[in-house]
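User: Continuing from earlier, I have the next pair ready.

Assistant: Great, send them over.

User: Here they are, in order.

Assistant: Folding the first of the pair now:
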Amino acid sequence: MKLKIKVCGMKQASNIAAVAELQPDYLGFIFYHKSPRLISDVSAELIKYVPPTIKTTGVFVDEELEIVKQNIIKYNLKAVQLHGQESVAYCTALRSSGAEIIKAFGVNEDFNFAQLAAYLNSVDYFLFDTQTPAHGGSGKVFDWNLLQNYALDKPYFLSGGIDLTHTTTIKNINDARLYALDVNSKFELEPGLKDVEKLREFFKEMKK
């Protein structure tokens, strides 16, 4: 199965349209107010006009449950990515919204994969990112060998500093649970503005 590709941190109107033309499987919009990639109210309105073949994804960090639900409805989000300390109960409550639930975890040498078992019935996917205080977007790669400690069957997104230089390494990962790649800062001209040509090259390489 070809890996899905999610382009995250979209912010500017024309850039959203240009990246959407590349037909990523997921397009991510950040609703975390401390992020330099925070989507404006004006640009957020464009989410509804992204082609239906692309799963529009709202990224939230420890946001009030009702606010997330409101945004799912308001912008017709197909998926929600939770990047904070959201509990199992929180994830379970969100599943009734009908959106896919992606629970992100920052991974380092001290990460305890055993904690993921509690989320198995509450989320659709896990997302493994580099552990940073900023909840993602660091541009740093974590040691992918740590994923050998992941013993569950739940499919996952791989995130954290993925660049064009990683395409061969990614193709050599022999793990049926690896469902999607999440790219962001390494494909930017500035926070929230994606380099469309570099993304095009990445898409082409990953389809080979």
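And the other member of the pair:
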Amino acid sequence: MTQHDVSRRKVLAIVTNYGVEQDELVVPVDHLRGWGAQVDVAAVTKGPVETLVGDREPGRTLDPDLTLDDVDPAAYDLLLVPGGTLNADTLRTQSSADRIVRAFTGSGRPVAAICHGPWVLVEAGAVAGKRLTSYASLQTDIRNAGGDWADLPVVTDDSGGWTLITSRNPGDLEPFIREIDAALAVPGPSGT
């Protein structure tokens, strides 16, 4: 497998239908699709996903591929959790999002979360013992949940039997995507 040969990889991005930070969803999805990965976007409902820019301005609108309830987490190699304050705050209240996160972490598959996305991991009980970063306002929540918060552009933690990739904000997308690429270049549990 070459550095960017992810053509047999399947990535799942989970979002709500309003409030996801545009670039934290669109940039990684477009990048991965450009390298041949299959990327599915799962939202709460089948309605359009309305992104925001800077949590304020309307961004692109996308059609989800499926709903959170319809997701079979076992079909994917990596989970992407983009941020956006409204997106992450609402997503963490969805039992189906919790189910998906627990399926990935319990099976040793990588999870990549950016900005406010780690809120979903906090809610799923997945940050205890992990070193990670996020939007700065989440650091107390992460520490209270047993995580070790660091103010770095990207943090990759392979402890506990699964890989967690985190970044702070859209300004960190380049190193965030680089680490996602590296995680996908490693053969998954099925050897693909």
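Worth noting for the second one:
DSSP finds six helices and twelve strands in the chain. The two ends are 10 Å apart (CA to CA).
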